[in-house]
Design brief:
The complex is a heterodimer of chains A (about 290) and B (about 260).
Chain A (H helix, E strand, L loop, with lengths): L9 H6 L11 H32 L10 H4 E4 L2 E4 L1 H32 L3 H15 L3 H16 L3 H26 L3 H9 L4 H31 L11 H12 L2 H33 L1
Antiparallel strand pairs in A: 1-2
Chain B lengths: L13 E12 L2 E12 L3 E5 L6 H8 L7 E6 L2 E2 L4 H10 E4 L11 H13 L3 H14 L15 H13 L5 E5 L7 H16 L3 E5 L3 H7 L2 E6 L2 E7 H5 L5 H11 L2
Helix pairs in contact in B: 3-4, 3-5, 4-5, 5-6
The chains are: A mainly alpha (about 290), B alpha/beta (about 260).
């Protein structure tokens, strides 16, 4: 990890190099090397872009970027009409939002089960974890959609939500358990010695100390949940990826639309992680 | 008082009674046939080489470690299994740890009030009064709004003592309370403990501070290899009425 110091030269700071002056390695050489590395990256991306462009030209692909506007939205008689891509990302947000809440709930319950003294609790939690982690997500989705959904009368959207929640919940469980177990043993002992009940011990002593350890990996989980939500397109839930597929089968503009869909996921996930970074900085400052 | 054999319960004056207690960590036997009783107002210092089981023994009193053999009675209740009963016992027994174990996310005041508020259903202001009273007693009331990480080790340990006292325990357990402290802070903690003893608090103290033992203890228990080797009055212990091992241990730690 490079350390960024406020005293570092501006360019070095922008490039994220450490700015430490080694005896045989003066700062100018450092900056020159950093510039060369940036140039390398730009060159590589340039070559890639050119390869794609040249390849598409060779197969006589007709780029039609001018047509993509209405895929987002149209304005008819001053009225805003969302297009398939906007509708799709709204469904994706809904899907990811509901299943992230559920997955944290499932994760918390499973973590409690795994750490409990009850044999039933431990064995149920462990069985759940082993099944979810050792079968493919796609197969789980088919199980939810073709087996559980008809049995319990669930529609495709909720089948997708529940499948994602069950899948990510298994990872949330381990994150939560890890955070709780990382709290020092002395804290448990002090809470016990004070005579706190088990609930009070966790509520007032353990969980408040575990939360700062749990939150960062948990947000990583939510980001991967947004990405994994694309898989429910195979059961035709009308989220972003499904809308992309439909657009392509209508317009044959595969290249443009996949670039746009990927870009929209990218914007969603990076803005989420930027928000989380800001939140973390604020939390650290509050302490 | 010098009773090390099993005695019938309950004797209202006996606050802690070990009877034939054994404890194993896997294959390793940490405690062997421990018999010990601590009466109301007694000040027992437990010493011995490291690994002799003294911390394990004191931690059995409030069941931070559980024993596998024999019985332990605290304030007339047997400690074993039943969580509700154990919580009751723990509220009668205050404990101070080697590494302080203050709650780092709470202010000093909150550290001390947590027990009274959660366990005795006191209102915040009642609990604050109690907490400030005990913080004053350990001379640290002016730091009430700080957080543990802002205090020195000696100050933290005094807060830990106040936290234990705020539950108005009948017995105080000290598990090497000065071992993690810088030398210049040891005395401020020992002074608080001496004051506590002068007020008649029943205390069980695991420590290497022989000066403190000499001044405050009325009994000295010497442990070695999981057994109680000596259990005698302070004067007797320091006057040389002790076995070979205790002699060897004492000469080692008193050399400096």
């Amino acid at each position: 990890m490079t350390q960024i110091h406020p005293e570092m030269p501006l360019l070095a700071r922008l490039l994220g190099v450490d700015g430490v002056r080694h005896p045989k390695d003066p700062a100018s050489a450092h900056i020159a090397r950093s510039l060369w590395q940036v140039a390398q990256a730009i060159l590589l991306f340039g070559i890639l872009a050119w390869l794609i462009y040249a390849g598409a030209a060779a197969m006589e692909y007709r780029w039609q970027w001018y047509r993509v506007g209405p895929f987002f939205y149209r304005i008819i008689d001053g009225e805003f009409i969302p297009g398939p891509l906007i509708n799709g990302i709204l469904v994706t947000l809904q899907l990811a939002g509901i299943s992230s809440v559920l997955s944290i709930l499932i994760g918390a319950l499973t973590a409690i089960g795994r750490m409990s003294n009850s044999i039933a609790g431990r064995s149920i939690a462990t069985t759940y974890l082993e099944i979810i982690r050792n079968t493919p997500l796609l197969v789980q989705l088919f199980m939810f959609y073709f087996v559980l959904a008809p049995i319990f009368g669930i529609d495709r959207f909720w089948a997708g939500v529940l499948c994602l929640a069950a899948f990510e919940g298994s990872f949330a469980a381990e994150i939560i358990r890890g955070g709780i177990q990382a709290v020092e043993r002395g804290q448990y002992e002090a809470a016990d010695a004070t005579g706190l009940s088990k609930f009070d011990k966790y509520r007032y002593v353990i969980v408040p100390q575990a939360l700062p350890l749990i939150l960062p990996p948990l947000t990583g989980l939510l980001i991967s949940l947004i990405k994994h939500s694309a898989i429910v397109s195979v059961i035709a839930v009308s989220e972003l990826t499904t809308e992309g597929l439909n657009l392509i089968s209508d317009t044959y503009m595969a290249f443009e639309i996949w670039f746009i869909v990927a870009g929209m996921y990218l914007v969603l996930t990076t803005s989420l992680s930027i928000m989380v970074n800001i939140l973390e900085i604020k939390m650290n400052r509050a302490r | 008082m010098s009773n090390t054999s099993a005695r019938p319960q309950p004797d209202p004056d006996t606050l802690i009674a070990f009877e034939g207690v054994g404890k194993w960590f896997d294959q390793f036997q940490a405690l062997k046939d421990i018999n010990l009783s601590v009466k109301q107002g007694a000040r027992v210092v437990v010493c011995g080489p490291s690994g002799s089981g003294k911390s394990t023994m004191i931690r059995c009193v409030n069941q931070l470690e559980n024993h596998q053999q024999g019985t332990i009675h605290v304030c007339g209740r047997e400690v074993y299994g039943n969580m509700k009963q154990l919580e009751q016992v723990r509220r009668e027994v205050g404990m101070v740890f080697q590494s302080f174990n203050l709650f780092p996310h709470m202010s000093i005041l909150q550290n001390v009030t947590l027990g009274p508020i959660r366990n005795s259903n006191l209102s915040r202001s009642e609990a604050d009064d109690i907490a400030l009273h005990y913080l004053e007693r350990v001379q640290i009331a002016d730091q009430a709004d700080k957080f543990p990480s802002q205090l020195s080790g000696g100050q933290q340990q005094r807060v830990a003592i106040a936290r234990a006292l705020a539950m108005k325990p009948r017995v105080m357990l000290f598990d090497e309370p000065t071992s993690a402290l810088d030398p210049e802070m040891i005395n401020e903690v020992l002074d608080v403990m001496t004051e506590l003893a002068d007020d008649g608090m029943t205390m069980m103290v695991v420590t290497h501070e022989m000066g403190f033992a000499r001044e405050v203890a009325d009994r000295v228990v010497f442990m070695d290899e999981g057994r109680i080797e000596e259990n005698c009055g302070k004067t007797e212990f320091f006057a040389g009425g002790r076995g070979e091992r205790a002699q060897a241990f004492l000469s080692k730690i008193l050399q400096h």
